[in-house]
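Input:
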Amino acid sequence: MSAETDTSDAITENKPSANYAEIIYNGIWKNNPALVQLLGLCPMLAVTSTVVNALGLGLATLVVLVGSNIAVSLIRNYVADAVRLPAFVMIIASFTTCIELIMQAYTYELYQILGIFIPLIVTNCAILGRADAFASRNPVLPSALDGLMMGLGFGVILVALGAMRELIGQGTLFADMQLLFGDIAINWKWVVFDDYPNVLFVVLPPGAFIGLGLLIAFKNYLDEREKKRLAIQKAKDGPSESKRVRVTGQVS
Amino acid sequence: MALLRISSPHTQRAGHRTSWVMQMVILATLPGIAVQTWLFGWGTLINVMIASIAALLCEAAILSIRRRSVAFFLKDYSALLTAVLLGVALPPTVPWWVTVTAVSFAIIFAKQLYGGLGNNPFNPAMVGYAIVLVSFPVPMSQWLGVQSIVASGESLSFLQSLQAIFHHLPNIDGYTMATPLDGFKNKDLVDSATAFQTIEALQSASINSWLWVNMAYLVGGVGLLWLRIITWHTPVAVLGALLIMAGVFHLFDMSNTATPLFHLTTGAAMFGAFFIATDPVSSCTSNRGKLIYGAGIGILIYIIRTWGGYPDGVAFAVLLMNFSAPLIDYYTQPRTYGHKKAKKGLKIGEDN
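Output:
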């Protein structure tokens, strides 16, 4: 996974006053880190075997993403271009260490289950990508919102994949939620199918590849349908009313 | 790497349509199905039935979602062939949902999502088999034993087979036993001479039953050769490579390995060599390519059987070689008539 991000994307986002609605739409849907950029695949495929694992990792990534985006945005005018990336990685690593220590303190079992994938948040290209492409060029507030939305987009897909795999793999949903939410969540486990044979293939990482493929296909299907709907709408509206074609001056 | 344009082998003889080829392959499995039914009861036939219904339903559903002509593609018998191959490969008393999972995965994911017949890079039947083998290890390892050895001393009646497949037959353990390959795999530290004397699954009655099954598939395979549906290259290469691997390692280490004959006549050796590896879509097309492809399968079967985690390795070996089939094809392009040398690969500095 490379940390490259689309340059044209970066240019459009380089405007001084970022459009908040566009940031939200980009993070959740159009430029979703998991479905479109396909960044951070390694933790995504490895830990999404249950909802609670996916939610734990999604929240940790979200916090790191917001934190690093804010920090990077704050120092963006004081870091030389040459040492830009090492500085960003240091910031991300510090936030990851904080999250790791917090999880170790409050959700120790989940911390043990997620294991190496919490420290590996440092290498999640979605985070470095956002720091370099967005936060290093924008003020604090849009950067924070971008981090939040990108993190949400990533987390939602993680949880969706986790739910799919838990449901098909083990026939349950929300098992072991007490690892994250404490004792009130102890009865949240929902046994959807009784007497269900575990489908090991879905529980193992290969199942995550197929699950992610299905999610991407579903997103592309929705996009395609929307595009078709717009095209039909446009055809129905007919050509614009002005009959004279303007060939000089500014064409708006 | 450019895609090769070698025309499909099954169209080389004029007048033979896809449906004819598929029908003949289905017919060629009949000796094997008959012998399996005779030895292990009705389970295999019931499996084939369940698999066929599930395959046709899945194929029809996906075709209608893809807005393709349903009747046209159902009539080419390819889905039915996948179902039959899976039905005979699965253990006879495997619960019905295992069969349905395997078949629907084979048809929907391994075949139709790639674009239907002719576009699938992997053998659909083996993808389905591998999925359920990985997912449900317990039901997939329960093969029935032959009558004379298992505790109850008889094979399952038709009704009992149905019960075993649809409900849980309580005394099914009385009828099941390890296959010879399973028995040999789990012989632990015993040397093979003692293993063949003491382990139940390696008694001559058990080994002979599998010999019969393999001979039946050999007969069916020879029939396919005679009809010129398959060429000799792939099966000979598979069995030859398995023979050489087993022979060489047997010579080096007599006490811990099985004889080459044991490897050739147990498990899915013949079935895999004649019915699975010769799939025209997912295997190699040139004759030299088929030899390399088959030899790869044979070597991998021996490696997986001997050092791998599973007792038999035909499915995984075939899938792994399916991966490499396009590469093998690329480097074994035959000489075109009128040209001196076959074009093999790209030359350095030449970019076409």
